[in-house]
Amino acid sequence: MNNTITSTIPITTTTVTQHIVPLRAPAIDIHPNAKWAQNGLTVAGGNGDGNGTNQVSRPQGVFVDDDQTIYVAEYSNHRIVEWKYGAMSGQVVDGGNGWGKSADRLYNPQDVIVDKERDSLIICDTGNQRVVRWPRRNGTSGETIISNTVCTDLTMDENESLYVSGDRVRRYRMGDTKGTVVAGVNGYGRGLDQLASPGYVFVDRNHSVYVSDWINSRVVKWEENTKEGIVVASGQGKGSNLTQLDRPQGVVVDQLGTVYVADQNNNRIVRWPKGATQGSIIIGENGQGE
């Protein structure tokens, strides 16, 4: 297990004004001719597996704020850690008291996002089957906002609706505790109306939901108020060809509909332009490594 988080820098030959946006913003502008540095920079951890403030242990979800502050959900340390840009160590902002069910503890958290309107963090407290909200600053305990739910990933749209990925993807509007299924309406399976262990979720400005369909090794787009999805990356079974993915994880979509996916078992980041039948490797052409 590689207990570091690395960042790569887009390099373009065209001069553009840089606008830093959160990693999961609904409108991410990436220059169509962008190229990426092939050597990443460690931005969190890098000092082996452990529970020190300069270490991470089984990092899962990552949120990058608009000031490049990084929030990491540490699965094995049951905590959320904030890493300021350029910092050599992080600060525990939620959890960190060992695993447990009480309001001051987390149990195997898998994702975290920032809610700036309320200056809080929203966390997939996966082991406790709940979604919790913690104050971003000086918080000592969290508030459960969704109970008895499978949660592996989450995101929020500009209307402050929360999207939670678990057995399916559900949307929770403000004050809603039951949610509405917006992806995977027919449960587990390979059909276009199904998902199999959905992982990461991305919502664009049109409220289309993109899901990394982990077991099916594909990325599926679900337009708003539809009963079936559209495969936008892979769909050819798991594998290492450029027409395939193998257990995809993180997904981001840019303003042109290009899908960027972390292809977990192939140890690479792949870019799939809108309508393309195969992707191109932008990071990780050299395979697995430390």
TrEMBL record:
Q: Which UniProt keywords apply?
A: Glycoprotein, Repeat, Signal
Cite the Pfam families for this sequence.
NHL
Q: Which InterPro entries match?
A: 6-blade_b-propeller_TolB-like, NHL_repeat
Q: Which residues cross the membrane?
A: none
SUPFAM superfamilies from the xrefs?
A: NHL repeat
Cellular component per GO? extracellular region
NHL repeat extents: 232-275
Identify this protein by name.
Answer: Uncharacterized protein
Source species, please?
A: Rotaria sordida
